[in-house]
Amino acid sequence: MKQGKTLAELGRELQRQRLNRQDFLADTRSLEMKSDSCGSILRLSLDRHNYSFTVGDVAHQQIASRLNIPFRYYQKMQTTAPDLLDQNVNRWFNQTPERRMIRVLDGNVRAFLSDRYRRLDNLELCAAVLPVINEMKGANIESCEVTSTHLYLKVVNRRFKAEVRVGDVVQAGFVVSNSEVGLGSLRVEPLVFRLVCKNGLICKDLAQKKYHVGRQVNVSDDAAYELYSDETLAQDDKAFFMKVQDVVRCAVDEAKFAITVDKLREATQIPLKHDPVKSVELLADKFQLTENERGDILRQLFIGADNSRYGLINAITAASKIAKSYERATDLERIGGEILSLPMPQNLLPPPTVASWQSLPEYESVPA
User: Fold this and answer.
1) Which of 23, 192, 316, 343 is the most exposed place for a label (fewest CB within 10 A)?
2) Are the beta carbons of 141 and 154 closer than 8 angstroms?
3) At what angle do helices 309-320 and 254-267 cross, to 10 degrees?
4) Residue predicted with more confidence, 1 or 362
5) SS3 call for 128
6) Residue 227 pLDDT
7) DSSP label at residue 29
């Protein structure tokens, strides 16, 4: 599992971001983009004052999406015709006006969002879930990080463990993740931690999600204005985070962990359909892996000398520890979980008998 910040470093960074963030609700007619070869500036007219902020990559993607400008064309205008980009964006800002939430950090527009976007911020999330994690016997934050797009808390509970093979012990855990810039919901996902190599596997098909959708903030006019804490919204958020606390308390579910361990044991008996090189090539095509990631996974697969589905999963999660970023490392851990969730090949399924079908218990599906 890739290491990020210490918990103390994470706390200091979240406090720093709180002091340096700004949020605005603005009619798009009060916005103007100005671009050159060095990048873009978004100008905002607010109460007879003009503000200027640089525009980040995520905000560019969200502006393009909202204005229905194909992003490849948007990028081409950025690099070869910035004046044309400004004409396109400013024309649609004025011709199809709407109110948007503008999230700014350190003078940079980090998100261009709906006015219904619910600000579930990282500092409040940590304040809600860290006390719950501290109360859990055997729980430990194995890794944590805040990136430009997400917060991650990866927790392992040493009280829940099992063997996949003799001596190959895994422990149960979970990942709490959140995006302040609209790139996904607040999630609590089951995590399996392999002790022998300290790899993490995220089982996102069993995740619990909470979405950043709230009620529209009422305003008396169409002018842009800065958002501050709202008492009613704060009460709504308190109730929301109480629900999140309940989800976290139940995040290490013994039954779900047992299901995942059984799948891992099954995976040890499923041989790869192709040789290691071909298997990794197919994996790279399916999940759009880079050349470096492909090479890292193949190298780990050879080191592990295990040409089963379990061996491939471990190669992916081992490669995540040397990924270029914490964000990408987490993506690879989720890809490992997707490989685990694949159905067992038909030729490996035990033949059903009348007795076995009659004795099967009824199970309710586990909600995602």
Assistant:
1) 343
2) yes
3) 110
4) 1
5) helix
6) 53
7) G
DSSP letter assigned to residue 272: -
- State the DSSP code for 53: E
Amino acid at 32: E
Instruction: Tell me the three-class secondary structure of 102-123, residue by residue.
Output: EEEECCEEEEEEECCECCCCHH
Q: pLDDT value at position 285?
A: 94
pLDDT, residue 354, reads 41
Condensed to tens digits (0 to 9), the pLDDT of residues 80-139 reads 999 999 999 999 999 999 999 999 999 999 999 999 888 888 999 999 999 999 999 999
Three-state secondary structure readout of 167-219: CEEEEEEEEEEECCCCCCCEEEEEEEEECCCCEEEECHHHCEEECCECCCCCC
Angle (CA) 169 336 282, round 5°:
135
> How far is the C-alpha of 115 from the C-alpha of 335, rounded, in Å?
33
Separation between Cα atoms, residue 199 and residue 320, nearest integer Å: 8
SS3 state at 47: coil
Q: How confident is the model at residue 355 (pLDDT cuts 50, 70, 90)?
A: very low
Q: Give the predicted TM-score (pTM) of the model.
A: 0.84
State how far the Cα of 202 lies from the Cα of 246, in Å rounded to an integer. 20
Structure tokens at 138: 């055997």
Q: What is the DSSP letter of 5?
A: B
Tell me the two tokens of residue 202.
Answer: 């995220």
- List Cβ neighbours of 295 (8 Å cut-off, separation of 6 or more): none
- Average the pLDDT over 47-68 and give the result: 94
Whose CA is closest to 190, among 165, 139, 156? 156
Helix (H) or strand (E) holding 65: helix 57-66
Confidence label for 361 from pLDDT (cuts 50, 70 and 90): very low
- Across the strands, what pairs with 161? 171
Q: Which has the minimum average pLDDT: 46-50, 75-79, 311-315?
A: 46-50
For 45, what's the count of Cα atoms within 13 Å in the CB-facing half-sphere?
Answer: 10
Owner of token pair 């012990």: 169
Cα–Cα distance for residue pair 241/147, rounded to 1 Å = 22
* DSSP 8-state symbol, 54: E
Q: What letter does residue 324 receive in the DSSP assignment? A: S
